[in-house]
Amino acid sequence: MPRFALTIEFDGGPYMGLQRQAHGPSVQQSVEDAAFEVTGEKVTLHAAGRTDTGVHALAMRAHFDLSRDFDPFRMGEALNAKLKPQPIAVLDCRIVPDDWHARFSCIGRSYQYRIANRRAPLALEAGRAWRIARELDAGAMHEAAQELVGLHDFTTFRSVHCQAQSPVKTLDRLDVRREGDHVIIRAAARSFLHHQVRSMVGCLSLVGEGRWTRADLADALAAKDRCKLGLNAPPEGLYFVKATYPGEE
Fold first, then answer.
1. Domain end: 63, 96, 129, which one?
2. How confident is the model over 128-138, as pLDDT tens digits?
3. Among this protein's residues, is 52 annotated catalytic?
């Protein structure tokens, strides 16, 4: 039974998230339906992350199993043909060992959040970035972000609907930098809590606007209380960037 590993790019705007939902379209359902059209088999797609409604992916890793052999290049091409015109693309398809799992074998995940820091409305990036009109101090945001790096109880930055067993996570990286009229936040960890990245970005935006200080962010973390969260950033600026596995760079 061959296992096919996919690298998938998608615009999360039209979907209720990556994971299959009973109340609306999902990326998982779209890929599974495409695989059925190609192979005649019902498959289950397993992904490295579970993105929310409106969250995008540049390179989501996922896999499914088939009962028979199929050329991986032809599989990727056929899936893309069946997925049209949906904003989902299979960037890579390959056969992996049976013990490789998109979610459980993953040892690192990284996200990027895009803030369009300008007064003018978004024409090309509508639905793909968070517009903040007030000038942001990206340097202050980066300095404050370092309060969150390391092993912490991230209860304050965790959705009340989060299903993780523990709020304790190790954040490996949280960088903020300005690129023209954009402020880019990059986060990396083995795994994240539900809404963790968006919650961290929301609070960092308050620092950038001068409404919070680095100490305020540290106090919110120490409080271990969701009620102390300053702001939860909207989903449209968030992108799943990369999943890392043993033996990969």
1. 96
2. 999 999 999 99
3. yes
